[in-house]
Structure formats: C-alpha cells, structure tokens
Specification:
213 residues, alpha+beta
Length: 213
C-alpha cells in the first residue's frame, strides 16, 4: 500500500482521495465475494435463510472486516515513511550531475500550504534542476532575494566535486541580466573561459553621424 500511496502523491492524489479509493475497491471486492457466495449456494441447490447463512457485512470485525485506512492514518504513515527514507533520498539527489543548471522560483506549491494566523510563512520555492530535468535541490524561501539560497548553491558545487561530477558550466535563469553577477560569484566555474558580450558586440563601431528621418 505504501508504494501505491507514494505513486499517488507524486500524481497529486493525496491521502483523502486515496482513502476513498481504497474504500471503493474494498466495497467492490466485498460485493463480488457476496455474489460468488450466493452463486455457490445456488450451485449446490441451497435456498432460503435456513440453508444459506447471511453473508458477512462489510464492517463485521469477525467476518469480512473491511477497514479502509483513514486520512489521518495514511498521512502519518507517509510522513514516517519519508522520514525513514530521507537519508537515502538525499544521497540519491546529491549524486545527480549538474553540468547544466536551471534555476527558478515557483509559487504554485504555496497555494496548497497553510500559514500562521492566515499569514504565509514562505514566499516561494526555489528549484534547481539539471539537464535531465532531475531535481538537484529545492528549498522554501521567505523572500525572492538570492542571498537566502547562497549556501545551498555553494553546497551543490561541493557535492559535485565530492562525487566526481564536472562543475556547472551553464546556467539558465529567467533574469540573467539581474542574476549574472550573483551566480558567477557563487559558482566560479561559470566564468571559466568565458568572454562576456554585450547586446551590440557583433556590430561595427559607429564612425559617422547618421540622419534618421
């Protein structure tokens, strides 16, 4: 069940709809068992309440004992599962390459998170993915200021070196003009053998006055 729940959560099927799904599947199985029970009785020529005892009710603890997990139980079970496996998830994530990095803030996840007395705690989620769209790092941030992710980005470069991966050579962001200086200071490999160009570098210098109509 844990594997099914994990697969469901990845596809945005949370504990509540998962609990309802299990209840529906168990109820359907109970109905099929009841149908097979009475079909078998008819096959052997038995009829009436005297010859055919009533089939167990769905929630009879001494009979069928249908017991779909509650939302609270599934939530607690998944939380314990993630806590127990977090070290392995962190190791797997830290072993991913990051030759090409794509960084950006996302705000969608904040729509589904609560706060304190109606006030949001986090402003956004900062994501770092590699060239294969694998998540290399993610963290909730209280502001869009890049200073709060400085340590996270530095740690990524340290782990790349520790596991034998190449340093990041290319980085994509939605605000390159604003973030260029920050990323080059944090990720020094971005500046290796790089010659900066301006918007007009490929144009010849202006040598005479041009009259524009």
């Amino acid at each position: 069940m844990m594997w099914k729940l994990s697969s469901g959560i990845v596809r945005r099927l949370g504990p509540s709809p998962f609990s309802e799904m299990v209840l529906e599947l168990q109820s359907k199985y109970h109905a099929r068992c009841e149908l097979a029970y009475y079909a078998a009785a008819a096959h052997y020529g038995r009829h009436g309440k005297e010859q055919i005892p009533a089939f167990s009710a769905f929630n009879d603890p001494t009979g069928f004992a249908g017991s779909p997990p509650s939302t609270g139980y599934l939530t607690a079970m998944y939380t314990d599962y993630v806590n127990a496996h977090r070290i392995y998830m962190d190791h797997a994530q830290a072993a991913l390459p990051l030759d090409v990095a794509k960084v950006d803030h996302t705000f969608d996840v904040l729509k589904y998170m609560g706060g304190v007395k109606g006030q949001k705690i986090w402003k956004a989620e900062y994501n770092v993915v590699n060239q294969f769209e694998e998540v290399r790092a993610e963290c909730l941030v209280p502001t869009k200021s890049l200073s709060v992710v400085c340590t996270k980005l530095q740690d990524i470069q340290k782990t790349l070196k520790a596991v034998g991966h190449l340093p990041t050579k290319l980085l994509y962001t939605d605000s390159p003009q604003v973030e260029q200086g920050f990323h080059e200071a944090i990720t020094e490999s971005l500046s290796v053998n790089v010659r900066h160009v301006s918007t007009w570098t490929d144009l010849p210098p202006l040598s005479e006055h041009v009259h524009l109509m």
